[in-house]
Amino acid sequence: MNQADLSKLVSALRIAVKPKPRLLSCPEGPAGRLKKLRATVTALVKYERIELNYPRADEAQGYAERLISDAIRNGDCHKHTMEMADYWLNEKQLVHKLFKVLVPRYQNYNSSFTRLVLGPKTYPGYYAGTAILELKGNPFPALQPENHNYHYWLHNVLLEEAKKEFRSAQEERNAGTTESVTTES
Amino acid sequence: MAIVEHLASLLRKPIETSDEAGERSVSTQKTEDESGNTVIVAPPEFRFMYPEFLPDPAPETRNRLREKLERMDMLQRRSVIEIPEFYTGSIMAVTVADANSPNKFARFVGICIQRGGSGLRAWFILRNVVDKQGVEILYEMYCPLIQKIEVLRLERRLDESLLYLRDALPEYSTFPLNMEQERRLNNSVVPINPIKVKLRPRPWLERWERQNLQGVEDLNLPQRFYDKAEKVAKPWEKYDLMLHYRKTIPAEEQEKIFAEVHSQLQQQELKRKLRRRRGFDNEQ
Question: In this record, what's one Pfam family (chain B) (predicted)?
Answer without folding.
Answer: Ribosomal_L19
